[in-house]
Design goal:
The complex is a heterotetramer, with two copies of chain A (290 residues) and two copies of chain B (379 residues).
Chain A: E1 10-14, H1 19-31, E2 34-39, E3 47-48, E4 52-55, H2 58-65, E5 69-72, H3 76-89, E6 93-96, H4 103-115, E7 119-121, E8 127-130, E9 134-137, E10 146-153, H5 157-168, E11 173-178, H6 189-198, E12 204-210, H7 215-226, E13 231-236, H8 248-254, H9 260-269, E14 273-274, H10 281-289
Parallel strand pairs in A: 1-2, 1-5, 2-4, 5-6, 6-7, 10-11, 10-12, 12-13, 13-14
Antiparallel strand pairs in A: 3-4, 8-9, 8-11
Chain B: H1 5-14, E1 22-25, H2 28-38, E2 42-46, E3 59-62, H3 65-75, E4 79-80, E5 83-84, E6 88-92, E7 98-107, E8 112-118, H4 125-131, E9 136-140, H5 149-159, H6 163-183, E10 185-195, E11 201-203, E12 206-210, H7 219-222, H8 232-239, E13 243-246, E14 251-255, H9 258-270, E15 277-280, H10 287-298, E16 305-312, H11 317-330, E17 337-343, H12 346-355, E18 360-361, H13 364-375
Parallel strand pairs in B: 14-16, 16-17, 17-18
Antiparallel strand pairs in B: 1-6, 2-3, 2-6, 4-5, 7-8, 7-10, 8-9, 10-11, 10-12, 13-15
Helix pairs in contact in B: 2-3, 5-6, 10-11, 11-12
The chains are: A alpha/beta (290), B alpha+beta (379).
Chain lengths: 290, 379, 290, 379
């Protein structure tokens, strides 16, 4: 079992012929992901690597292949349109890897996907992987291992670090989800926690947050109220200089300064395990799996 | 990206917000000349990317052009929060009846631009929020519909009982919103929004912070960047497409990914060290980035050891290894370096490094401990 | 019983101090409608006719009085904003009397009210009346009579004509609803038919359509499929010159030319009664009430 | 409101749609002069608010300026569907490779502007819809989001396989949409959208219909109205704020409300008469409107009887009565009048009419029958 993607995921890759898109398309295909289509305007009718049909539009791709998930590797100026196209064309999950999407674009994309009932992951995220079944995005497949831990993180490489530590210790994962670190993203911690709580295969959850905003505090509140499964948390940025990653005004609105201390306090109050170093996840999770 | 008050005001003015006349001076003589053309009392205001300019003595009222010259002389060249004042805004001094605060930011929670308005303007809005939160009205804007007149009027009436002022303020909110969207802001403020004794509305101070991700598609806005008012090493890093923040420690860090970079700094601290910087070389592989990163870090004389922590996903670790080799060949290092590499093309990377006399490990924890020890003068 | 409004309707009047607003405010108050508030920016704090408190915004009015319905008498340039304000302020029914609202404004207002779950009637409509209980809009109260007939119409004065004929014949109405004749309006025939079908007091329905569009055809389809109660229909414009009230392009999209003949045919196919003259409703409805 | 091709093209051009150069001429000499400045073959196109200009001989290809003069001589002054041609557009003749149709209308069913595009352009889109509906792609636009690039590209690829043309067409769709919204259209069309043999896209014909309700807030667009190309009595009525459509019958109708007006005309027909017009005096009470309505109706020499059918709601029937009295005092009627009044202030209205020698009833059915009989010469 898993969350969001599994072996039945049929993927269309937007920007499949670009530098990043083609590289990761191959990686995903090698991993075993069902890559059913690619999209590059003007290359409709061609094939990627001789096997994957390319279409001019996501509409054409979905119609011809029944793709139910899209992953986006297009440059930032086109990413908002790509997310909306995927949602409009009828996939149920859109994963946007692109980094550097203007936040005001997201204020428009967010309600667009919401009113279509489509799940958006990202932007500026590494995607997700269900080890042994399907990988959508850029998380390196070989650092993962099937198993009982749900992983959710705001950061890319930090996720790899933690997953790698778990895997080396023989602790596998149901699904690893990178939700991305942008101020406005499609899926938040709570969405993932909820999914992991429902997934029978997930026995414990590793959650990696960052300073800034209040998503981690709200997630902790959710853990306290709704979760039976154990959650271990980490916050990156305990030594980061204040005020460099978020403005004062944001803090006013949320009634919070978004510091690591505040977030860790919320974790503790929710009865969550707290991983002080990335590598501490291993023992904390192991203890909770017994 | 921060822009100066005079630049923000120019944008606001072009969207219809009433702004007192003003011009920028870089010399006291210019300040005097500008004041002379206005023929009224003026304010001379330091243009630096720092709050608390008034308290620092960077904002002065001047009755006469001679006065403006004298005040400009004092302000130009002064330091406010480590930043040297290179420019002053000379602007007609407004008669102030009442002062209000009007701001917009992009809010993570509602995922919308949110207006914050308060009749308690002129002072720090953080202070109002902390002490009298009921004096602030928050109005989220659904960008699909823009700022509707009814919401603008609601804010207008929150600030002013008089319908004429409420309408005037509502118009200013709509202009401010248009400017906010057009310039790609993450924050825009008018503080104070003034009602003059004759009943006119005036934006006496204006501030804008631009979303860096907007700059590629908004060259006019990108051109407003004033590199002279920023930390030179951060300017250098940005021009090399690196995210860099200078700190006071001695362990120079080169990491890929903001989360891992922060976690690395945290771990340096955890083992008793002090990071010299935050540096994210980002996701895409490019040996050139590594070369630039090393150049920037080694320019900091405080740095006693360099720590690479690279987890290759999109980033190919062989590209990083090649970058290290290239950079150190051109400019041999004077401080020790600790390299941790794992992930994409790890074996190739190790081979490149070994062939060039470097050692590297694949474990983050030991690498960090080693770097901290080296920075302390250990081995 | 009735639909949409009854004696518990608490009304706020937007534009209460204007020419039309003040005239009809008095009419509604005389009829017995609970007029709890008025809105005119800048007149907040004053009272209308010495009794109804006036507010600067609908938000203030709803907060202070608990108004659940709004009626709008503001000039066309301000009508779209007024409809959105009412919906945002939390009433559940918005009735817009204003004529001359640009149709492109309505393309924005429509989704705005829909996503808030608010019912909009109009614009360019006479409003509605539940005889003996409440009147919201401009339908003359004295031509109505409580009774068993639901009336729904795209036209204003034509509604009066038919209601007047029914009343003179002693046939009363549950609720008379004028949905308005603009190309984009908030409530259509089907919405009203559905409500009348559910309303136990309504025993028969009189429906007045016009040439143009396909609302009447869709309503007829709805009657055929979902209605147990008898419906009598009328179409105005049988002699109107073609192409003067609707463009060719509209006809292409709808696959229909929107003629009276086509609509009457749909009525007949749905087993509806057909009133040839406005006055024929009386006998047709009387027969169906037996 | 209809506007001319040359006006629509000007709006489209200002929004970035590629349009062949063109100018308006009102005399053959002007047409020749314009053709001379272009120095190429031109089209001379009648500017009237009527379809089928080509079939009627109102659009001609001209090789030389002399040819343009000759064709303009033939077209200027000709009648197309009862409308006299007062102006021609002289425009550079485009080399035509392929022709497509692109249009937007406001759609009642989806409650959105909807694009219709077809590669089968140049001919009547109604014909395409009737015979080969699969050749039309419909794309509704959610105005909250505007026309997204992906939908524009989807249409571009529906028209052209080549990605360069698809992109070009997508841009044109976005410009067309912007023009449609900015001008307050209920319809905007480019037909044909041409690909020239050299691969350029050109809008060779353009059409726009403006929503009358937009005109008050768009004076620039309102100023495009060409009253010389409309039925004079309809112009007169519009200037008096009346909705009036001239017909061929002999019973002049004055009614309040469009639905009741149509129902009244239907009833005239039902009783064997023929309405001379549709006339809606609208909702607001104003004796002046009645005066103007009577003036416009009595100007039609076909009218043999006048029928008033007023159901007072917003309209006060006493205002209508006063209007009838005033108008007939100034210009005594030469034809019989039948007055039906009921509703708001009915008793006062009856009193006014009776005191001035009119009779009036409150029953629509008998009033219509009486008017039909009088128009036929009865009593």
């Amino acid at each position: 079992m898993s969350v969001f993607i599994d072996k039945n995921t049929k993927l269309v890759i937007q920007g499949i012929t670009g530098r990043d898109g083609s590289f990761h398309a191959k990686q995903m295909m090698e991993y075993g992901t069902q890559v059913v289509a690619g999209v590059t305007p003007g290359k409709g009718g061609q094939k990627f690597e001789g096997t994957v049909p390319i279409f001019n539009t996501v509409f054409d791709a979905v119609k011809a292949t029944g793709a139910n998930t899209s992953v986006i590797y297009v440059p930032p100026p086109f990413a908002a349109d790509a997310m909306m196209e995927a949602a409009a064309a009828g996939v149920s999950l859109v994963v946007c890897i692109t980094e550097g999407v203007p936040v005001l674009d997201m204020t428009k994309v967010y309600p667009f996907v919401k009113e279509r009932g489509v799940r958006l992951l990202g932007p500026n995220c590494p995607g997700l992987i269900t080890p042994g079944e399907s990988k959508v995005g850029i998380i390196p497949g070989r650092i993962c291992l099937p198993g009982p831990v749900g992983v959710v993180s705001r950061s890319g490489t930090l996720t790899y670090e933690v997953v790698y530590q778990l895997t080396r210790a023989g602790i596998g994962q149901t699904t690893c989800v990178g939700i991305g670190g942008d101020p406005i993203n499609g899926t938040n911690f709570i969405d993932c926690l909820e999914a992991f709580e429902k997934d029978p295969a997930t026995k414990a959850i590793a959650m990696m947050g960052e300073i800034g905003g209040t998503d981690e505090q709200e997630a902790a509140e959710y853990v306290k109220k709704h979760m039976k499964k154990p959650v271990v948390g980490f916050i990156a940025g305990q030594t980061a200089p204040p005020g460099r990653r978020m403005g004062h005004a944001g803090a006013i609105i949320s009634g919070s300064s978004g510091t690591a201390a505040e977030k860790l306090e919320a974790f503790a109050a929710a009865g969550m395990g707290i991983s002080k170093r990335p590598m501490d996840f291993v023992e904390l999770i192991r203890a909770r799996l017994k | 990206m921060n822009i100066h008050e005079y630049q923000a005001k120019e944008i606001l003015r072009s969207h219809g917000v009433p702004i007192p006349p003003g011009e920028v001076a870089t010399t006291p003589a210019q300040a005097e000349a500008i004041a002379t053309t206005y023929g009224t009392a003026v304010m001379v205001k330091a243009q630096v990317h720092a709050g608390g300019r008034g308290k620092a003595g960077g904002v002065k009222f001047c009755k006469t052009p001679a006065d403006a010259k004298e005040k400009a002389t004092a302000i130009l060249g002064m330091k406010i929060k480590d930043l040297t004042v290179e420019k002053v805004l000379v602007t007609v001094a407004a008669d102030i009846g009442t002062e209000a605060y009007v701001g917009i930011i992009v809010d993570r929670a509602t995922k919308k631009p949110v207006f914050m308005v308060s009749a308690a303007g002129g002072i720090d809005i953080e202070e109002v929020a902390a002490t009298t939160p009921e004096k602030i009205l928050y109005v989220p804007v659904d960008v699909r519909y823009g700022l509707p007149t009814y919401d603008a009027m609601r804010m207008g009436f929150f600030l002013y009982e008089d319908v004429k002022l409420a309408r005037g303020a509502a118009k200013i909110m709509q202009h401010l919103y248009a400017a906010f969207m057009a310039a790609g802001c993450s924050l825009a403020e008018i503080n104070p929004l003034v009602v003059t004794p004759t009943g006119d509305l005036l934006a006496v101070d204006g501030k804008m912070v631009i979303d860096d991700n907007e700059l590629d598609r908004k060259p006019d806005i990108a051109a407003l960047r004033d590199e002279s008012s920023e930390e030179p090493s951060e300017v250098d890093a940005r021009n090399a497409n690196l995210t860099f923040i200078k700190l006071d420690g001695n362990v120079g860090c080169v990491v890929n990914g903001a989360g891992l970079a922060m976690a690395t700094m945290d771990l340096v601290k955890y083992y008793g060290g002090e990071p010299a910087n935050f540096l994210d070389i980002g996701g895409s592989s490019n040996p050139e980035k590594v070369v630039n990163a090393l150049r920037i870090i080694t320019a900091d004389k405080n740095v006693k050891a360099i720590l690479f922590n690279i987890f290759g996903g999109i980033t190919r670790t062989d590209d990083v290894a090649n970058g290290i080799v290239t950079a150190t060949k051109a400019n041999p290092l004077k401080v020790p370096i600790v390299i941790r590499l794992t992930g994409t093309n790890e074996e190739l990377a190790m081979k490149i490094l070994t062939e060039n006399g470097f050692t590297a490990s694949s474990d983050m924890d030991t690498a960090v401990q080693q770097a901290v020890a080296l920075a302390k003068g250990g081995k």
